[in-house]
Design a protein that fits this description.
Elements: H1 2-5, E1 19-22, H2 25-29, E2 33-37, H3 48-63, E3 68-73, H4 78-89, E4 93-99, H5 110-117, E5 121-125, H6 127-135, H7 140-150, E6 154-155, H8 163-174, E7 183-189, H9 193-201, E8 207-212, H10 219-232, E9 239-242, H11 255-268, H12 274-289, E10 298-302
Parallel strand pairs: 2-10, 3-4, 3-6, 4-5, 7-8, 7-10, 8-9
Antiparallel strand pairs: 1-2
Bound molecules: pyridoxal-5'-phosphate.
């Protein structure tokens, strides 16, 4: 069992992940200092917040004698690919329940192909059933139904957010020395686990800002608060979610966002993931440019993942 936990593919390439200062005249004019927390460099197959969120879950699954992980996601889900790779590294079978039963007989896209290459078994569910299964995932009857089909399994929700995942994300804050008043740690928000962990891990005075990548996702505030209640038994008042930089909705990359990301890449020689990271960075720049961040703010932007390996 021990050798499974230390299987080579899951050994992080770089921990602590690099903390890189970024000089940019736009921010300097606003009196804002920016650093990038390069979690995208942690691991090639399980990068960024995937590594932070999954490894505590996989360790717990192995310790509790599980042999199979089951999780949920869309057809291009980063989470699905990461679970497939991480599960293989830990010697666990993996099942990916994919939104959309119309995909069952369609040719596999590159993302699902990669998941299958890591041994993940894919099951396709109609959208209504998928939504309902996720909504009732805490209900023992739902888990029983899944286990009737797949056997005993460690079930992770879509996006992988649970208390263990948030604790894993909290660890990234420990790698950033000297945080305090005047510090703002920023990340993209899909399901809220990464933001919940960051906020819970911050020392007094420092604050967290999450940038929602979904449109009309006010429920995410409750999700984050719920993770705090379940994991830490308390509320934290040091975070907020920006709901104005989703770029039109999940997966949408409007021309303005594309132009911002391309210009950032050009200026800083670094590839930027579009669905999450570009939205978060653009939010930071717009808040700084509009004077919404107090002069002297030090922003640490968490780069939660690399660009898709396939354009
Ligand atoms: C690259 C990247 N950044 C951020 C997130 C959002 O993380 P969370 O779901 O914990 O809010 C995701 C989603 O899973 C992601 O793939």
């Amino acid at each position: 069992m021990r050798s499974r936990i230390l299987a080579p593919v899951i050994v992080p390439a770089a921990l602590p992940s690099p903390l890189t200062p970024l000089a940019d005249p736009v921010l300097e004019r606003a009196g804002v200092e920016l650093r990038l927390k390069r979690d995208d460099l942690i691991h090639p197959l399980v990068p960024g917040n995937k590594w932070r969120k999954l490894t505590p879950n996989l360790r717990a699954a192995v310790v509790q004698g599980h042999t199979r992980l089951l999780t949920f996601g869309g057809a291009y889900s980063n989470h699905i690919r990461a679970v497939a790779a991480a599960g293989a590294a830990y010697g666990l079978a993996t099942v990916g329940v994919i939104r959309g039963d119309e995909l069952a007989d369609a040719p596999r896209n590159w993302s699902l192909k990669r998941a299958e290459r890591h041994g993940m078994e894919l099951a396709f569910m109609d959208r209504a059933g998928f939504r309902e299964t996720l909504r009732t995932l805490d209900d023992p009857a739902t888990v029983r139904a899944l286990e009737e089909r797949w056997g005993r399994c460690w079930v992770l929700p879509e996006g992988g957010t649970n208390v263990l995942a948030a604790r894993g994300a909290a660890d990234l804050v420990v790698e950033i020395p000297g945080l305090g008043a005047g510090d703002l740690v920023c990340c993209a928000v899909g399901t809220g686990g990464t933001l919940a962990g960051i906020a819970a891990g911050l020392p007094d005075g420092a604050r967290a800002l999450g940038v929602a990548v979904l449109k009309g996702a006010g429920y995410l505030d409750d999700e984050v608060a719920g993770v705090h209640r379940r994991g830490w038994g308390r509320a934290f008042g040091n975070w907020r979610i920006d709901h104005a930089h989703h770029g039109g909705g999940y997966g949408r990359v409007p021309a303005g966002l594309e132009a911002f990301a391309a210009a950032f890449e050009e200026r800083h020689g670094m590839a930027v993931e579009r669905r999450y990271v570009a939205k978060m960075l653009r939010c930071v720049y717009e808040l700084a440019g509009s004077g919404a961040l107090p002069y002297g703010t030090r922003v640490t932007a968490v780069i939660t993942g690399p660009p898709d390996p396939v354009a």
